[in-house]
Amino acid sequence: STNGWGRIHPKGRYMVSNTPPSKGSQPRVPENHSGADNRMDELHRATLSLFSDLSLDGVLRRIIQAARELSNARYAALGIPDGKGGLETFITLGMTDEEIKRIQSSRTSGPHQPVGNGLIGEMMRTGHSIRISEIADHPRSVGFPPRHPKMHSFLGVPIAAYGRPLGQIYLTDKQGADCFDAEDQRLIEMLAAHAAAAIENARLYRKVVNSEAELAQRNLELELVNSIATAASSTTEPDALLEVMLERLITLFGAGVGELF
Question: Where are the chain's structural domains?
Fold first, then answer.
C-alpha cells in the first residue's frame, strides 16, 4: 500500500503523488476538444440544416454550401444526373457573376453546364469518390472550357441511396493546403450520406404536394360534372343549362369572364 495522495488520470489510470492538494484547488483537466471534434460539430450542424428546408432547390443549395465550408474549398458544385449520362441540374458556388458570364460568352450555344465528361463522367461510371492534387494529372481529365477559372486540387463525392445515384458533390482548390486530405473526404462522404436522405425527403414532399394539387383539381372537375348533371335534370331550358355550365367553367379555371357559342 502507499500513503501517497491519489487521483484518477483522465485516461483512467490511478496516479499517486506525495504532495497533498492545496486547499480549494481543483484537479486540472486537459483540454481534449480537438480540431477533429470541431469539424464533427460543424458536420452535425450542417446535416441538421439539410432537413430544415423541404424544397428540393433549397436542399441542394444547403448541401453545396455545407460541403464548401466543411472542406474549405474555394469552389464547389453539385450535379444531379439525368439518367442519360448527363446532368439535369448543376449548381455552382465560389465563382463570381463576372466569371460565369465570361464562360458563357465563350460558348457557342447553351448555358455553362458540364455534359458528363471528364472526372464528372468517371464518377458517374464508377460511383466512387475521387481525390487528387492536380486535376490535369488524372487520365480522364478533359480540361475546362475557355475563360474558366484555373482549378487544381479536386475532391468529388457521389450521393447515392440504396445503390441509386442521386447526385455528386464537386470541390476544387483546397484553401490553405495543396490538396484535400483523407479527413476532408471522410467528412464529405458522411455529409453525402445525409444529403441522400434529405434529397429523397424533398422529392417525396414535392410528390405529395403535387398529388394534393392534382386531387384538388380532380375534385373541382367532379364538382363541375355533378353540378351540370343536377342542372340538366332540373331544367329543360337550353339557355339556363348553358348559363350554369359557363358559371361552373369560369369557377373551375379561375377565369374572369367566359362565353359559350
Answer: 35-202, 208-253
What string of DSSP letters covers 98-131? HHHHHHHHT-SSS-S---S-HHHHHHHHH---EE
pLDDT 10s digits, 64-88: 999 999 999 999 999 888 877 777 8
Please give the CATH number for the structural domain made up of 35-202.
3.30.450.40
Contact 242, 218 (CB under 8 A): no
Q: How far apart are CA 259 and CA 246, in angstroms?
A: 7
How many Å apart are CA 234 and CA 116, to the nearest integer?
A: 63
CA 111 to chain centre: 21
Whether pTM > 0.90 for this model: the answer is no
What would the grid cell of residue 199 be?
434529397
- Grid coordinates given for 92: 455552382
